[in-house]
Amino acid sequence: MPTPVETLSTLYTTVVDAVKGYEEAAKIAKRDQIGTMCAELKKTHMGHAHDIAGLLLERGERPDADGSYMSVVHKIVLNARFMITADEESLLPGLRDGEKRLLEVYDDTLREAEIAAGAFQPAEIEVLKAHRDHIVGNIGKIDTHMQTVA
User: Average pLDDT, stretch 43-50?
Assistant: First the structure.
């Protein structure tokens, strides 16, 4: 079973990757609505990364702000999707998928916290639950936008 630091570090890396992906999507998206949505997602997850970095620092760990190879993969996929369709609306399913993947990682992290009863501080769990709620809201916003475009 991973330690709380390992679990939080994995989550942090995933969130940093998401920030980088939304930064790339914002560069591609020129329309106000899509570009604004990408910027909002990036800002939200930058805040989440900052919070998780704080949790790691409180545990005596220095977070690695580089992310993983997945940030490069996300960049390639976004650019390829846009090149094929030349339609910024085609970014929406990718944004939704990104939020769904983040939601899964948060769910895994919260399960780990539950399994490792007492290893996570109640304040840490509350931060993670609040982030998760933001992500659920983000998915709803993306879904609403996708329905208005369809």
Answer: 95
CA dist 18 to 45, 60, 117, Å? 7, 24, 28
Residues whose CB falls within 8 Å of the CB of residue 46, separated by 6 or more in sequence, listed in order: 19
Q: Dihedrals φ, ψ of 65, to 5°?
A: -80, 5
**According to the model, what pLDDT value does residue 83 have?**
44
Total domains in the chain come to 1
What are the Cα distances from residue 106, in Å, to 1, 110, 114, 127, 135?
16, 6, 12, 11, 9
pLDDT(73) > 50:
no
Rounded to whole angstroms, how far apart are CA atoms 3 and 7? 6
Mean residue pLDDT across the chain: 83
pTM as predicted: 0.84
**Residue ranges making up the domain that contains 25:** 4-149
Terminal CA-to-CA distance of the chain, rounded, Å? 44
Q: DSSP readout, 76-105?
A: HHHHHHHHHH--GGGHHHHHHHHHHHHHHH
CATH assignment of the domain containing 8 = 1.20.1260.10
The amino acid at 65: A
